[in-house]
Amino acid sequence: MITPEHLRRIAVWSAELTEEETDRAARGISEKTLSTGTYLFHRGDRFDSWTGIVSGIVKMSTVTSSGKAVSYTGVTRGGWFGEGSVIKNEARQYDIVALRESVVACMSGTTFRWLFENSTGFNRFLVTQLNERLGQFIAFLGHDRAFEATPRVARCIAWLCNPVLSPGVGGHLEISQEELGLLSGMSRQMANRSLKTLEEAGLIQVEHDGIEVIDLEGLKHFGE
Hints:
42% helix, four-stranded antiparallel beta sheet, 2 domains, Arc Repressor Mutant, subunit A, globular, Jelly Rolls, 24% strand, alpha+beta, 9 helices
């Protein structure tokens, strides 16, 4: 259980709720800390919680039947995920692993479903989020893994800074080159070369604690 005040700090969607709904939501949320490399859940697990990232970054990925690791995307501060699995009451179709020490907020499935059934504001947020996520994964399937390294890195940064899916990030992304490589499916060295190219193009500025995004739209369409 967390306080309504803390909920407002960690969840942009709470602004859509009534006072009663906010209290109900806060009572149904608990937080936990994941150390680097810790799994929140594995593919096939029954995990009846909607999850938000309070701090840190996690990777959504899976391993194919042939043993190939596939990274889908990262979720960072302010992002919430898993609504589809909770609504459908199904096993998770991906792994979630912390790329660095991360704090996650877990809303019980019971609380989520109450909001889903009773809160107009909450449903308005979910429709917007699901629509944004659909566009993201259509882009992923359409072209992301077909591009060379630099466009893949560009899109990875753009997705992590998506103002709808990760409203807590803003224009400064706290991420290491190793973490970016893991999310983009490449080595740290290749990610580093791609970052230099994007910096020379005036789209980002690489800083000691992460990346400052200068042109988000340019990142989304780099290489097209």
